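User: I'm preparing a small set of examples for a lab meeting where we compare how different chains pack in three dimensions. I only have the primary sequence for this one, and I'd like the structure in token form so I can line it up with the others. Please keep the answer compact; I'll paste it straight into my notes.
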Amino acid sequence: MRISQPRIEQTGVIVKAPHEIDLMREAGRVVAGTHKLLKKELRPGITTGYLDDLAYEYINGQGATPSFLGYRGYPKTICTSVNEEIVHGIPGKRVLNEGDIVGIDIGAIVEGFHGDSAFTWPVGDVEKSHLDLLDAGEGSLHAAFPYCTPAYRIGDLSWAVQQYAESRGFSVVREYVGHGIGRTLHEEPSVPNYGSPGKGLPLRPGMVLAIEPMVNVGTWRTRLLDDNWTVITEDGQHSVHFEHTLAITEGEPEILTAWE
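Assistant: Understood. Below is the structure token output for the 260-residue chain.
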């Protein structure tokens, strides 16, 4: 399919044409299908590497390409972040145990366009406090959706994420943020998980954003491990990560990675 040159506003934000959003919708479908598969397989006793192998086979079997594999040197298909790991955990030999929580971040490319989504899941039975954290993380993502229309700005949806999480006694990570997405995995604008209403870039139809709250039990501060990928909470307490790719339209936003 012939892809037209992207339309770039003065802000540097890339505005997608309808056929480009169609391709991102297909990439989102692949990402959603991968999440469905991995959630079904998630149980105590499996390794994070097993989940990565499943994701690799599924994404390629759909005629897509993993977004993360080889991206800036990243060595795996997905990210698996367990307990105190916030984002970018590298799958491998780690065994998931009863009571763990694991954030799974997945990206796929279809004809040059990306989809990106993350969910954090309980492994078997987990403590109620961890369930509360999971609810707050997913709820903070959904809290942003009503503000993802041309009537609002980036600061409005960022504020909604922050207020939802903090009102439930948790903190939002400030050192890592959401982003625009399209031909590349990370485009302008940055989408922080904290902010002030009425501030930031106005939202426009054709913008596509990956909104991804990272919500911690304790401090919002982070630490990077020696592998130069895995980000953990500074205080060692648990964290969750939720993300959807969505398109700004004239009306309600379209969740391109929706699967439930």
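A couple of notes for your slides: The two ends are 29 Å apart (CA to CA). The CA atoms of residues 139 and 164 lie 7 Å apart.

User: Perfect, thanks.
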